User: Which sequence fits this backbone?
């Protein structure tokens, strides 16, 4: 099973946490790794830390570049990846010692192109959220896997808790300068796969920093996610039309959540800009009567309400705290 795995780690302003991340990669029970550290113009001690690790282990390579953001750092690392399989690990996160061994063994046993494991959040004081594993392994066709990704069940948009066949990934760049870059990228990779697998074993530990990009309160950049889902909608309609209604309902739901969030958190002029962007996406994902009827349970009320009076629905949900 000694297949070569390339691990791309984008690095920016994480000198407090970087050693911990790298150590979790070096203590893997699976050793046939190349670890590509991409220093994205860090102003702290990250560059020196990366170079020090290169001297300690010949599996590590360091790339230094001007700051361009998370997507740009991942893109910069991909041309240096030589493995048959590829993984992305964020530089303040850690993985369990058996992460790559279990992921690769299961991917090969299931004859899959992508495998995703379960994730647990942990915090500055080192406490973890609760989690429970049943170690189940389930594989899906491309259509069913993409459907599970749209619904965020059982798959999720995150780039970093997965192992991919490199041939699916290396010619698909991440979007430059976008927040929620996973929303622009992951569906394309799932769309290329023939078979995808989920293992219910928690092996990726996702660190929660109060000052992280995703820890910020709602702002205009968060609307990048709607753009990503709109791009996904166009892709789905072209290549997987049987999933078009499901994807459109999901996009409409995201518009509602963004609408109620901006009403709660934004002030002018950002608020006006956000309203304009959301209105455009609402027009693009107008639901048909059949699509509204297909929605089950209490959600049908909210979708129908939003279909008739979008901003009033968002205001009611924002004031009452529904959906937060």
Assistant:
């Amino acid at each position: 099973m000694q297949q070569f795995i390339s691990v791309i780690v984008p690095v920016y302003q994480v000198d407090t946490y970087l050693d911990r991340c790298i150590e979790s990669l070096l203590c893997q029970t699976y050793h046939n790794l190349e670890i590509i550290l991409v220093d994205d113009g860090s102003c702290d001690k990250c560059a020196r830390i990366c170079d020090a690790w290169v001297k300690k282990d010949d599996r590590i390579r360091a790339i230094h570049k001007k700051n361009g953001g998370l997507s740009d750092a991942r893109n910069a690392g991909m041309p240096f990846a030589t493995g048959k399989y590829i993984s992305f690990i964020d530089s303040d996160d850690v993985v369990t010692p058996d992460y790559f061994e279990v992921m690769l063994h299961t991917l090969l046993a299931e004859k899959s192109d992508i495998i995703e494991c379960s994730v647990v959040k942990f915090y500055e004081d080192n406490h973890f959220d609760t989690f429970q594993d049943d170690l189940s392994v389930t594989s899906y066709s491309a259509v069913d896997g993409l459907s599970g990704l749209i619904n965020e069940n059982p798959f999720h948009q995150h780039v970093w808790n997965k192992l991919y066949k490199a041939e699916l990934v290396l010619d698909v760049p991440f979007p430059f300068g976008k927040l929620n870059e996973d929303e622009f990228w992951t569906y394309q990779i799932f769309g290329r796969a023939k078979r995808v697998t989920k293992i219910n074993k928690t092996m990726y530990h996702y660190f929660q920093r109060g000052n992280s990009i995703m820890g910020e309160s709602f702002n205009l950049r968060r609307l990048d996610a709607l753009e990503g889902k709109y791009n996904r909608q166009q892709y789905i309609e072209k290549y997987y039309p049987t999933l078009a209604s499901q994807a459109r309902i999901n996009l409409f739901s995201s518009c509602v959540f963004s609408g109620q969030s901006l009403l709660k958190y934004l002030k002018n002029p950002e608020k006006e800009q956000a309203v304009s962007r959301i209105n455009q996406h609402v027009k693009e994902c107008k639901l048909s009567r059949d699509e509204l009827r297909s929605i089950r349970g209490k959600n049908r009320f909210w979708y129908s309400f939003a279909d008739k009076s979008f901003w009033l629905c968002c205001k009611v949900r924002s004031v009452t705290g529904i959906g937060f």
Observations:
- Residues 217-319 form one domain.
- The mean pLDDT is 95.
- The chain has 13 helices and nine strands.
